[in-house]
Amino acid sequence: MDPNGIPNGIGKAMKNLDLDGHDLPPSPTPSSPSTGRKYALATELVYTESNDQFNASSTPIYQSATFKGGPGQEYDYSRSGNPTRTHLERHLAKIMNANRALVVSSGMGACDVITRILKPGDEVVTGDDLYGGTNRLLTYLKENNDIIVHHADTTKLESVKAVLSDKTTMVLLETPTNPLIKVVDISGIAAAAHAANPAAIVAVDNTMLSPYLQNPLDLGADVVYESGTKYLSGHHDLMAGVIGINNVALGEKFYFMINSTGCGLAPFDSWLLLRGIKTLAVRMEKQQANAQAIAEYLESHGFKVRFPGLKSHPQYALHWSQARGAGAVLSFETGSVALSERIVEATHLFGISVSFGCVNSLISMPCRMSHASIDPATRKERSLPEDIIRLCVGIEDLTDLIDDLSQALVRAGAVRLTENGFEALELHEAGRTNVVVDEP
Ligand SMILES: *Cc1c(COP(=O)(O)O)cnc(C)c1O
Description:
35% helix, Aspartate Aminotransferase, domain 1, globular, binds pyridoxal-5'-phosphate, 14% strand
């Protein structure tokens, strides 16, 4: 394959070359211990084997666009393949329980690569609480490429089945959704989609949980993708997108697109992402423990909290049947947009920012920020409350986080001091809920 993606005939002459011209096995070498038992995920995350000439402990950054040499060598041009990127892809494939992983320049880049296989007239079935960027891309495809997009309430198998047919070419799911934290039955919907059309591709956006907590390919999905910008990286210092597949032909289609458009992840960012992945387990464990405690704190004081770690979550059992943890994103409502705005502005430790997955805690109002690209009418139709506050919990000390939230609730006027602690103000007036917050 030459840099223009035109087959140059060399592949035919060389045995065992994959589509990108690499003489490497299509699936990662298993790093199982001699007992035959598979290593646990926390071990796989940090353990990497490499054949580096100097036995470097950290995978070297091959900051090179070209590689010298004649036909048949492993690398020639970094758009087609780069050793640092390949190392990351093989490491990720193992972690995602995939045969092949591909890394691109952002999560939306991954979504773009996947949806480029759609042809005019193809039908896509997807959710009604999608990530704003995904919604924007699907709207573009609908308006410009004649793709038919059905938004269904993916929490109800029946409403998904109602729009599935033999014309369904792709089903695009997110679970839990953000910020409504709706849980989607991956295996149930995958089975229904494949029954409607055996060739339908079920793609799952796994950004909210990461491969540490959920493996959609094991649940019947054909493609898993996620934003590496979030938990995989963990530090908000890079943007990346990751795609995992078991189907070889599908993997080749996606690779063709990446090589053709040039969206493969750069060597330096590939190295940074490898570095982030090594601490995924410890970060995620701490983040979700903090998130659980904060969700319980807010709920015990009367707020309507959405978090799959709470027994009150309407799909608690479904979530735990397909995931190993609740993640670290939760949302809650206050009953008033102005009040929510004051709370968001009054926190110190929770940075006002879009995105999540970082070691720092973040706070945002999705209707004003990440989901602002969805017009107000559509937000209303999808019952996205304008006052909803999203918390993305980091690895800070839990007491500090709860103190920060408590003082923000007081300063925002959500609660007032009484003999019994704090008592809700506006929430009372809105007649929604009865909030009493303990003295911080
Ligand atoms: C952030 C995000 C994306 C997009 O990823 P980028 O790396 O920002 O392009 C897609 N899906 C979900 C659920 C996300 O949170």
